[in-house]
Amino acid sequence: MTSYKHILVPVDESPISYAAVEQALSLAKDLGCQVTVMSVIAVDPFVGVDFYKVAPAITDYFMQAEKNAKLRLQEILDSFQREGVQVDQKLAHGVSPSDGIMQIADEVGADLIIMGSHGRTGFKKMMLGSVAQNVLTQSPIPVLIVKV
Length: 148
Prior knowledge:
It comes from Acinetobacter indicus CIP 110367. This protein has one domain (6-146): 3-Layer(aba) Sandwich (Rossmann fold), CATH 3.40.50. Helices cover 51% and strands 20% of the residues. The chain contains five helices and five strands, in the order βαβαβαβααβ. The protein has helices spanning 15-31, 51-82, 97-108, 122-128, 131-138, and strands spanning 6-10, 34-41, 87-93, 112-116, 143-146. A five-stranded parallel beta sheet has the order 3-2-1-4-5, sandwiched between helices.
């Protein structure tokens, strides 16, 4: 069995990502490995909208999204630190979630990604996309998908 040294855990506001956090915490404690938790402030959802008409709304949206992500990451860091697990945090900006995950995995030298999946299938998956599926397809390192 491979002995993992650095786990990357992408999180968002969904309960499923917290299930992935719990799995990562348990595995990190058992293996004594480092963890990086991360979030992505995604690509601008207002692309194509007249920037000058909505600039304050865009600025407010991204400032609030970043504030929420930092709070979420800090709560997770605190829980890992209480358990004695070496942990760091990263925030990616302006990229798709899957690209951000892959960039940070490479940046920190992760050798395992643990992430949640909503388990969408069929039409919902086709229309909404699947970050987990994209990461599975792109990743040169193992990916553990947690579903609840």
